[in-house]
Design goal:
Length: about 375
């Protein structure tokens, strides 16, 4: 991949680039909890976005993206959101400009193997790879945390998705062989080894990314905020301590169930439960109890399906079908929802059976063979040689 990017850069722009990469991510449990100031348990993986970068001495950004087969030129004096993947590059430039850095003309080749629209955060990997590259190339002084926040703002302002911090944070802070337990309120984090020889993490790509995903995502966020507002009114004595669903437990929620609008109640029920599942899940991982951890993954999916209503027929099918198979410890839909990938923890010796069974069943029902990826946990954004 790196040699190809170098060659392509030379062919497109007639010089040699500096190379950087940033990975996509998985999330074992803790979905839709980040923007509720809760906890997540992601890890960076061995599928990455790569950028080659060099100054061009002009006031333009020239980009060639191999994965998308597209080429663009943008005036640095006229940066605004556009449709499509290049908006993430423009958003990151605007973030740096907003911090007072002087932008210079650049040539860029973008490539990668993070599946697009598959719930593995290819857009966060792109923001992180480009942000990390700019920061290093020009010797700017932003920390990894600051780059993650800039990526999140790019998603908000240049793509219109009010996402949480999980994806960018993970792409920049990943650690080989480890998951990250991240507190999305304090931003404290802890690396948890995922050290289970004999088991592997398998993703299955539904190959659907539903149109409504981003509008429904923003709607979920709004419904959670409505829930917090309503619950604050029911608990005047602790009102000032209730900033998000993180500050409430199921008992408090249940005590006002009848006064909450049904949909809002279900959204809150899911998020509060998911935070609790994550905490228990981390204990199970520390104790080496993958079987109990896997059961929580199935419960998480049930919540996503029934209460948070962000799953879809295709993901439900993959989770249900894999639950029937030998050696599958846990399965759930991963990421924002309405398609993307499902994540499964599978005993290594059962993987051939899993891979011969699941794609065929899916094809029979939906008419396409879903790609499957066995992923490993890797380091976050870095400079490449
Ligand atoms: C998307 C968002 C994340 C997170 C997940 C759901 O990936 O970008 O911030 O909210 O959905 O957990």
């Amino acid at each position: 991949m790196l040699a190809d990017i170098k060659a392509l850069f030379l062919e497109q722009f007639g010089k040699a680039p500096r190379l950087y990469s940033s990975p996509g991510r998985i999330n074992l449990i803790g979905e839709h909890t980040d923007y509720n100031e809760g906890f997540v348990l992601p890890g960076a993986v061995d599928k990455k976005i790569y950028v080659g970068i060099a100054e061009n001495g002009m006031d333009v950004l020239r980009v060639f993206a191999r994965q998308y087969g597209e080429r663009f030129i943008f005036e640095l004096g006229d940066i605004r959101p556009i449709k499509g993947w290049a908006t993430y590059l423009l958003g990151m430039l605007e973030q740096f400009r907003g911090k007072g850095y002087e932008l210079k003309g650049l040539d860029l080749v973008v490539d990668g193997d993070v599946p697009l629209g598959a719930g593995m955060s290819s857009s966060a990997a792109l923001c992180s790879a480009f942000g990390f590259a700019l920061n290093d190339y020009f010797g700017w002084k932003e920390s990894r945390m600051s780059l993650a926040l800039m990526g999140q703002q790019t998603e908000h302002q240049f793509a219109g998705v009010k996402c949480g911090i999980m994806d960018e944070f993970t792409s920049l802070h990943g650690k080989r062989g480890h998951l990250i337990k991240l507190d999305c309120r304090s931003m404290d984090y802890e690396y948890i080894p995922f050290d289970f020889p004999g088991y592997q993490i398998v993703l299955v790509n539904t190959m659907v990314s539903h149109e409504l995903a981003s509008s429904e995502y923003n709607l979920r966020r709004q419904q959670c905020e409505e829930g917090v507002d309503a619950l604050r009114r029911f608990f005047p004595e602790i009102r000032s301590n209730i900033r998000s669903l993180r500050d409430l437990n199921l008992k408090q929620l249940e005590s006002h169930r009848d006064e909450l609008e049904e949909t809002v109640y279900k959204r809150c029920f899911y998020v509060i439960g998911e935070n609790a599942r994550l905490q228990r899940g981390c204990q199970f991982l520390r104790q080496g109890d993958l079987s109990s951890f896997g059961k929580l993954m199935f419960l998480s999916h049930e919540g996503l399906r029934r209460d948070y209503a962000v799953s879809c027929e295709e993901s439900d099918f993959l989770v249900d079908a894999s639950a029937e198979l030998e050696g599958v410890m846990g399965s759930r839909q991963m990421g924002g929802g309405f398609g993307g990938c499902t994540i499964h923890i599978v005993r290594s010796e059962s993987i051939p059976g899993f891979l011969s069974e699941i794609p065929g069943l899916y094809e029979k029902k939906f008419g396409i063979i879903p790609p499957a990826y066995i992923v490993s946990l890797e380091d976050g954004a870095r400079k490449e040689d």
